[in-house]
Amino acid sequence: MQRILVTGGAGFIGCNFVHFIMEHTPLHVTVLDKLTYAGNLQSLSEVPSARFDFVKGDICDGPLVEALVSRADAVVHFAAESHNDNSLAEPRPFVDTNLVGTFTLIEAARKSGTRFHHVSTDEVYGDLELDDPRRFTEESVYRPTSPYSATKAGSDMLVRAWVRSFGLQATISNCSNNYGRFQHVEKFIPRQITNILDGARPRLYGSGSNVRDWIHVEDHSSAVLTILERGDIGETYLIGADGERSNREVVEMLLALTGHSPDAYDLVTDRPGHDLRYAIDSSKIRAELGWAPQYSDFEAGLRSTVEWYRGNEHWWRPQKKATESKYAGQGH
Ligand code: NAD
Ligand code: TDX
Known about the structure:
By secondary structure, this protein is α/β, with parallel strands linked by helices. It has helices at residues 12-24, 62-70, 84-89, 92-112, 147-166, 188-197, 217-230, 247-257, 283-289, 298-311, 313-329; strands at 3-7, 28-33, 52-56, 74-77, 115-121, 170-175, 177-179, 203-205, 211-216, 236-239, 244-246, 266-268.
């Protein structure tokens, strides 16, 4: 394997993955990204150009996708519409990109026999009660609840069917909530950090008791590379770092890290259909592929994320106002 195609490489996880690949492998990377509101070329400005190409384009563009996929030894597919609140306001782009885009890519990969890794989410499994002792496993039943998670679940099913029916050389991963640098300010942690930096109060949906299972984005990258190198074709791997926290706990930690009172937040209108809790059992990837997360100290990871946003206002500032006006329109 020498050349990989990374879709969505100008987004949060995609760009962190490209940086990770540059640091840890000799691979050549081509990024295919449409540069939607969520894509930002500045996130890739420090990538060494000798091993890197950028193509602006849509994963639904069949001829473009075929040309790029046939030239790659492997595809790592991150491109997606990724934000639940947007999927409730305007679902159409989620169907186009997450379903039709994934279909376009796997058709191309099957024609050229290219290795394919599909990046997905734990949200395909729906949610758990707060006191449920179980966590999601590779055997959990698909029960997506939002337009976003339904289209991600559909894309997983397409990949599984293409493996079985056409021998597509694919693997799938379903990861929990990521945090770290280069995450769009619409997402929970960057929104609260940049609110605090702006002198505004963090905003918790509902009662703040919903639980997410946090993983540092570097650990997601190392897991995806591990699957690409050693995963078994046709297999699904769940990726998680045992990082369950309620949203309220996360906000309290951010307030403490920035020297504010722990109750200096506001409770706002809840998200319709808001999933209560996600929790990942990542035993399979740990036991079968020998992967383990490196970022075990969540507070230290949050502290360095706060510092990154403090030091990179030029990166997030242009998006902040438009993001907050969109939220104001939704009552959040
Ligand atoms: P993101 O929204 O930050 O980035 C998505 C990228 O895809 C952007 O650069 C955007 O321009 C690009 N894109 C969107 N539509 C496109 C199209 N039609 N053609 C080409 N490019 C297009 O998303 P993210 O948070 O980095 O998520 C990346 C992937 O990881 C997604 O598939 C998501 O479902 C999955 N995932 C995310 C998380 C998380 O916590 N953020 C957790 C598990 C899985
Ligand atoms: O201002 C906020 N206040 C708040 O309480 C925002 C933006 C969110 N929330 C809550 C909603 C969720 O319970 O915080 C939690 C996290 O919200 P998001 O960052 O929107 O993430 P989530 O909906 O959990 O989905 C994320 O993880 C799984 C990613 O956006 C998805 O792409 C990924 O698949």
